[in-house]
From TrEMBL:
Pfam families: PP-binding. Signal peptide: none annotated. Residues 2-84 form the Carrier domain. The keyword Kinase does not apply. Keywords: Phosphopantetheine, Phosphoprotein. It comes from Bosea caraganae. NCBIfam families: PRK09184.1. It comes from the Bacteria. This is Acyl carrier protein. InterPro entries: ACP-like_sf (IPR036736), PP-bd_ACP (IPR009081), Ppantetheine_attach_site (IPR006162).
């Protein structure tokens, strides 16, 4: 399992208090909302705050791009990596 994806899975579990889940319970390509993990808009806000704090990301308000980034753990990992390439958003 990809290290960044594992970090994001732990972040989801910790920030949303999903204690019954383990990182390996969340597939990287599983939808996070509705039919997948079942997260809702409040969860998205909390996850966005956690991502900002953890990775120092700038996340624009709700746009189609943000919806795509938040679709799966894999898409979140790609978004974090893309921000790493931008010197203003380097993830430590």
């Amino acid at each position: 399992m990809d290290e960044l994806e594992t970090r994001i899975k732990r972040l989801i579990i910790d920030s949303l208090k999903l204690e019954d889940l383990k990182p390996e319970d969340i597939a990287s390509d599983e939808p996070l909302f509705v039919e997948g993990l079942g997260l809702d808009s409040i969860d998205a806000l909390e996850l966005g705050v956690a991502l900002r704090k953890t990775f120092g990301l700038t996340i624009e308000t709700v746009t189609d791009d943000v919806k795509l980034h938040f679709r799966t753990v894999g898409s979140l990992a790609r978004f974090v990596r893309s921000q790493q390439k931008d010197p203003q958003h380097h993830v430590a």
